[in-house]
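User: I would dearly like some help making sense of a protein record. This is the protein in question:
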Amino acid sequence: MPAYAAFLRAVNVGGTGKLAMADLRPLTEGIGARNVQTYIASGNVAFSHDAAAADVQSALEKALHDRAGKPVGVLLRTLAQLDALTAGTPFPDAPGDKVICLLTDAPIPAAPAADATHHTAEDIRPGPGALYIHYPDGQGRSRLRLPAMAEGTARNLNTIRKMRSLLAERS
């Protein structure tokens, strides 16, 4: 049975989009998922499901919409995709909390910094299904804006690695 990691967009960030992880577990089980486990209160859930990724993503988005009364973006990744993302980091020596993976289902631009605004010390690189952003001074001090931020969702590399390990337990 395939294992998936779902990363919800704009959940429990900045006081908006509140969704308790205790509510996310049964909601995910309600679409037929098994072995469901959430990770930290920012909309991360690992699970197994018999259906194809596109069908799972659609079902989870519908269930979230029904619960929230508005669209909630879901970015779904498999173990192989998270393996590629963690192995491909262009910042292997940077602390995991200073490297952000901006997950997106949109095409990844070859030169992502070209469309950036408020770009200072951040290093932005394309990756498999994500943009890697190294924030040497920390993300909280940055004012960086990228077009992909409007549709994607960001997780630090530590979170991506943890979700990868949760999927490995389900595979």
User: Anything to note?
Assistant: The first strand starts at residue 3 and ends at 8. Residues 53-68 form the longest helix (16 residues). The CA atoms of residues 9 and 73 lie 5 Å apart. The chain has four helices and eight strands.
